[in-house]
Write a structure and sequence with these properties.
Pathway: Nucleotide-sugar biosynthesis; UDP-alpha-D-glucuronate biosynthesis; UDP-alpha-D-glucuronate from UDP-alpha-D-glucose: step 1/1. This protein has 482 residues and is an alpha/beta fold. Helices cover 41% and strands 13% of the residues. It is built from 18 helices and 16 strands. The chain starts with 18 loop residues before the first strand and ends with a strand. Bound molecules: 1,4-dihydronicotinamide adenine dinucleotide (NAI) and uridine-5'-diphosphate-glucuronic acid. The site of uridine-5'-diphosphate-glucuronic acid has 22 residues, from α10 and α12.
Amino acid sequence: MGTENSFPLSDVRADESCREEPFGGLKLLKIVIYGTGYVGLTTGAAMAFLGHEVTCVDIDEAKIASLRGGKSPIYEPRLDELMELAGGNLRFSVDPAPALSEAEVVFVAVGTPPMADGNPDLTAVQSAASSIGRHLGLGFTVVVNKSTVPIGSGHWVESLIAEASGEGDIRNLRNRCCVASNPEFLREGSALCDILYPDRVVVGSENPTANEVLARLYEPILQQSFTAPWFLPRPEGMGAVPLVATDLASAELIKYASNAFLCTKISLINEIGNLAEKVGADITHIARGMGLDARIGGRFLQAGLGWGGSCFGKDSAALIATAKEYDIRMPIVEAAREVNYAQRDLVVTKLLNELKILKGRTVGILGLAFKPNTDDIRDAPALDIAQRLIDRGARIQAHDPIALDRASCQLNHSGIRFGPTAEAVAAGADALVLTTDWAMYRDLPWKRMAKTMANPLILDGRNFLDQAQLVNAGFRFLSIGR
Ligand SMILES: NC(=O)C1=CN([C@@H]2O[C@H](COP(=O)(O)OP(=O)(O)OC[C@H]3O[C@@H](n4cnc5c(N)ncnc54)[C@H](O)[C@@H]3O)[C@@H](O)[C@H]2O)C=CC1
Ligand SMILES: O=C(O)[C@H]1O[C@H](OP(=O)(O)OP(=O)(O)OC[C@H]2O[C@@H](n3ccc(=O)[nH]c3=O)[C@H](O)[C@@H]2O)[C@H](O)[C@@H](O)[C@@H]1O
């Protein structure tokens, strides 16, 4: 295994509740997961598929009811199938007590949404930690934090558990429980592959038992010793997965640093794209020419409207806020954010250049999710852009192949009209903007759509569409960065 730091897989706890099965005598564990969102539910399904006994707990009764009825409350490709394969290993409850009393590993995967000052709201983490403390069993439990939390949170969680458990003194608690950080790097839309076939697993703890339990938990993934589900084949050439074992603070910071790096990479290509456009260059050629340099790498160099979603914005703001507490500035991360949010203004500027007036114009938006293959609309560039256009008097009609229901529920009073198809939002529009690069948008009946528009103008916000095809279909074609 190509580990920087690997743990011996010794039998650290001759615990009767560990069951032998099915990957070469691996000991399976009893796991509780707090939070059945994009991270908790996918992690739960993957762990249960690997044979562990998993109980997913959530305070949202509707989510648990839906899951018990066999229906996932979120859209994630192949999740339903994996949950089905996991079968009886995967259970759901609003009551953590019964499963927690026997749990060997407890994941915390609750939300940490941003507050106005950039810091994440840790209310859900606090309440999960207190609940764990109240219901802790008599055996030894490793509490594993997967929520993205500020540096130092691991120790704070430990103290909350100690307090709620009645032990009070953390030293007494250390005989029954310890806290580790296991940051999550999955991307929505490819979450299950990212969990089963990760680039690395990071585990931060100051407790050797925690490290060994987690190495045991992750062994099938680290060694790639499980039989891949037919619908999620193992990537070609995939070998053993490196395990990075660190102290708590380093693991917590690895998460923020990784997201900051990815944000910065995207913002850099967008900054270059803005110059490329002025000098008559093409950012897609530039990204390819840069990305083939192994030191740079071609991924996350897709220029366009920039990043959105529930994490890049939140985590970059949290990193800046944490640094501020230590009187340190993060000018690179600040600049990455500034560049990113300015990209969204380009839509207004470009449409104004073409249409001269936005008041009373109808703009069709293709894609509401913050990226393809998810129904997540948190900090979706499409919504921000729609609002900026509405503020200038435009009428917005929008479509998304998967996020439409969620968007129409949550944005009921936004003034956006939701169309059942891409063709419907094109009809009568003065412009179309492609905001999310859903595969289905590549092959729309463009010729027919151009004919139904008041003005066949399209802005490809993701450098995704075939310009020649669109021009051929009768569109005036705009893009970002070329
Ligand atoms: N969404 C993503 O792609 C990734 C998210 N993360 C991090 O993982 C954490 C979770 O993110 P998501 O899954 O996207 O959030 P989410 O909002 O989809 O799910 C969080 C769930 O926690 C539940 N919850 C809140 N308080 C609870 C409590 N006391 N007990 C039990 N359940 C509770 C909520 O009802 C909700 O179902 C965040 O810290 C996020 O930054 C990390 C990597 C990837
Ligand atoms: O901490 C998190 O929540 C997660 O955040 C991102 O994952 P995610 O936000 O799900 O999706 P990405 O694929 O990273 O896309 C984020 C945004 O960047 C945009 N993007 C991505 C890549 C690119 O080249 N250009 C670009 O504009 C996407 O359209 C999307 O809006 C990270 O990629 C994950 O590693 C991390 O675990």
